[in-house]
Amino acid sequence: MQISGYLYALIICSGLTLSVPALKSANDTPALLLVSFDGFRADYLNKYSFPNLEKFFSDGVLVHELTNVFTTKTFPNHYSLVTGLYAESHGMLASIMYDPVSKRHFSIKNDSDPFWWNEATPIWVSVEKNGYRAAAAMWPGTDVKIQNHTLKYKYEYDSKVPFEERLGNLTQWMTMDRSVKFATLYWEEPDWSGHKYGPENTTEMTKVLREVDNHIGFLIEQLNKTGLWGKINVIITSDHGMAQCAKERLIKLNDCISPNSYTVVDLTPVAAIIPLQDNSTIYKKLSSCHDHMKAYLKDDVPDRLHYKNNERIQPIILVADEGWTIVKNGSLPRLGDHGYDNTLPSMHPFLAAHGPAFRKGYRMSSFNSVDLYPLMCHLIGIAPEANNGSFAHVRCALVNEQCGELALAVGIVIGVLIILTTFTCLFKLMKNRDASSRPFARLELDDDADDEPLLE
Ligand SMILES: *[C@@H]1O[C@H](CO)[C@@H](O)[C@H](O)[C@H]1NC(C)=O
Ligand SMILES: *[C@@H]1O[C@H](CO)[C@@H](O)[C@H](O)[C@H]1NC(C)=O
Ligand SMILES: *[C@@H]1O[C@H](CO)[C@@H](O)[C@H](O)[C@H]1NC(C)=O
Ligand SMILES: *[C@@H]1O[C@H](CO)[C@@H](O)[C@H](O)[C@H]1NC(C)=O
Ligand SMILES: *[C@@H]1O[C@H](CO)[C@@H](O)[C@H](O)[C@H]1NC(C)=O
Ligand SMILES: *[C@@H]1O[C@H](CO)[C@@H](O)[C@H](O)[C@H]1NC(C)=O
Ligand SMILES: *[C@@H]1O[C@H](CO)[C@@H](O)[C@H](O)[C@H]1NC(C)=O
Ligand SMILES: *[C@@H]1O[C@H](CO)[C@@H](O)[C@H](O)[C@H]1NC(C)=O
Ligand SMILES: [Zn+2]
Predict the structure, then answer these.
(1) For the chain, does the N or the C end have fewer beta carbons within 10 angstroms?
(2) Please, what sign has the CA dihedral across residues 120, 77, 53, 393?
(3) 8 A C-beta contact, residue 141 and residue 165
(4) From CA 173, how far away is CA 119, in angstroms rounded?
(5) CA distance linking residue 432 with residue 164, whole number of Å
(6) Ordered structural domains, the chain, with CATH
(7) How far apart are CA 24 and CA 381, in angstroms?
């Protein structure tokens, strides 16, 4: 990676470029379908069997692990995937939020106030502002009037609508209306079972992951039947992973601070605390509360979490260690949870892609989930909004981008040629100057004679 990066830099600096972007008219840009299976932890792929998913990526791309954003919760990460922004920049910071300026409350059960979404512009709004259409089946936010924009092809969120119906209506919209260039589909599993049984309950996880894989089989079949398979680009990914919790791993806030000294906005595994007295007293008590919980004053949240610059972040943030649960005084609420530090592998999802734009049988170890947004904009052919992702991190997944061994070999040859040419030119130049430029010659040779024969 580093060598090829260096070579690219060299080539670009030399005014050459290896990749010539294909110019496509709007109409033959293939549509893009983005699918999320909530809570699909990356290493489920190593521990369970997925015959249909394997069929999907064996003919496409597999990214083993995505580094997602903090907090590793559903809404923050689904919004990062479609905006390319960290949570502090898109404003969807947690499952439960409070805005101290407007005094409004947010919860995922009541998410329809555009106020919470309007700090960013999701890709489906940009797609429609570019004259195309977008279609959506329950992806978080797609039924909200974000940036004053309502989708024509969308569902109101209803967890009871089966997978087959969500997908069936989506493919109907896509085949009926060729201006649909972006479609998105959301499914609640394996998140729901991961919370209920814990990711280490292999009996239950085997069951639900087989179901998820069958859905992927149905997806391939349905796309094939409607003539979309192989014609459109499809990305299957997720928002976060899942960690095993246990009743032995509880952190009780009321053991450390008095219940009437604080308000809790969100509780676990990342707590948002508003002290009712002064911040520093409560902070001191919380910072020595438990070995498996870190406490941060808002301004001291580590930069790498990108979780500081937003009104909706409360004065004190508590972060539990992997597998630990924060409660006020209660018992363990669920056997599996997510939301923890986004550097933990257990919090990472995977990504797989298939379609004309993608390489076949290609594997990548990882990229950032915010990098997906510039990739999707590239695939649809629209200009991305300002974002935190990088197309350079993901371009190697694409068939039209020169990458890998061939590019490296070509890069090395061109690089060597450039170096040789440069040296030859320099050498000739110096020789020439040696002969023609007297001041230079004088510097080098003290007894330079005026009657130098070469001057003639
Ligand atoms: C949902 O949120 C809206 C706007 O924030 C609020 O007016 C309404 O009362 C909430 N509804 C429920 C059921 O909590
Ligand atoms: C939203 O759209 C409505 C009707 O199209 C318009 O009256 C209103 O001014 C718009 N609001 C904003 C904030 O753009
Ligand atoms: C899906 O499409 C069918 C047929 O057009 C329609 O009857 C059904 O209501 C749609 N489902 C939803 C949830 O809108
Ligand atoms: C998995 O969950 C089922 C259903 O709750 C339970 O009966 C079983 O004992 C669990 N297995 C393990 C290994 O925890
Ligand atoms: C698509 O359908 C055709 C005809 O039924 C079948 O031969 C082919 O194997 C299917 N392709 C996939 C990927 O399922
Ligand atoms: C606590 O900290 C927040 C900033 O994080 C600040 O707005 C608030 O005024 C502080 N409260 C007190 C009582 O100092
Ligand atoms: C917290 O739990 C303890 C023992 O489990 C109980 O005695 C106490 O009343 C509880 N406190 C609150 C505020 O619920
Ligand atoms: C993320 O992108 C937004 C929009 O361009 C920008 O305001 C913000 O500073 C970026 N964050 C970082 C950490 O670069
Ligand atoms: Zn989720």
Answers:
(1) C
(2) positive
(3) no
(4) 29
(5) 76
(6) 32-85+120-242+341-397 (3.40.720.10), 250-337 (3.30.1360.180)
(7) 9
Determine whether the shortest distance from the Cβ of 197 to ligand 4 is under 6 A: yes
What is the residue-averaged pLDDT of the chain? 90
Determine the Cα–Cα distance for residues 344 and 68; give it in Å rounded to an integer: 10
Confidence at 100, pLDDT banded by 50, 70, 90: very high
Burial class (CB in 10 A: 0-12, 13-18, 19+), 123: buried
- Cα separation, 203 vs 166, in Å, equals 27
What is the 386 CA–ligand 8 centroid distance (Å)? Answer: 8
| CB of 106 closer than 6 angstroms to any ligand 3 atom | no
**pTM, rounded to two decimals:** 0.86
Q: What are 63-78's pLDDT values in tens digits?
A: 999 999 999 999 999 9
**What is the CB neighbour count within 10 angstroms for residue 304?**
10
pLDDT of residue 12: 43
The residue-averaged pLDDT of 312-316 equals: 98
**Is 50 exceeded by the pLDDT of residue 80?**
yes
Tell me which of 161-170, 184-193, 393-402, 412-421 is least confident. 412-421
Task: Output phi, psi for 62, to 5 deg.
Answer: -120, 125
**Residue 74 annotated to the active site:** yes
Residue 188, SS3 per DSSP: coil
The rounded distance, in Å, linking the Cα atoms of 36 and 237 is: 5
Q: What is the DSSP string of 189-237?
A: TTHHHHHHH-TT-HHHHHHHHHHHHHHHHHHHHHHHHTT-TTTSEEEEE
Pocket perturbation via mutation, ligand 6, pick of 279, 284, 310, 313 by most ligand atoms within 8 A of CB: 279
Gap from CA of 119 to ligand 8 centroid (Å): 12
